[in-house]
Amino acid sequence: MSYFYSGGGGQRQPKWNYQTNLDPNLLATVRDEMLRKEEEYRKEQQRIEAEQKRLTSFLTQLQAMVRDLPGTYKKKFTYDVLSGIATCLLDGTVFEIVKGLEDIQQLSERNLLNKRMKIVNSQKAQKMQMAKKQKMPCRNVNKDPIICLLWRLQMLRKRRL
């Protein structure tokens, strides 16, 4: 059986009994490497497909959220914007930003709590000083309760004004 045009002209049949002189270990190594590369490629394709499914899921959920918004806000969320948000959700950028914002919020809250505690403590100190000032004239007036009572009423009126 001829593999070439055998319509005369004196063409010769090719020799197909070529024998390789490659090392069998080299062939096995190449075969193993090819199998490993095919396995890596298959895993990469599976990862890409899973990522694409997650992206589609995020995009669908975002579109459902936008449907619930009033009309003025719906216009601002185009498909490109939603696709960008879904991509950010997919690669974790949004979660990193949220984590950073949580840390900033905790620091701000601690700072505000410290300021509040300082103000509360200073108010307590002021109240104690005022109470001492109110009691001092009563001690100096020979312990007369009527004068002490009048003086306290006068202090209360001053506070209300």
From TrEMBL:
Leader sequence segment: none
UniProt key word Coiled coil: yes
Coiled-coil regions listed: 27-54
Keywords from the named record: Coiled coil
Pfam families referenced in this protein's UniProt entry, alphabetically: DGCR6
Family, per entry: Belongs to the gonadal family.
PANTHER family: DIGEORGE SYNDROME CRITICAL REGION 6 DGCR6 FAMILY MEMBER, PROTEIN DGCR6
Protein name: Protein dgcr6
Species of origin: Desmophyllum pertusum
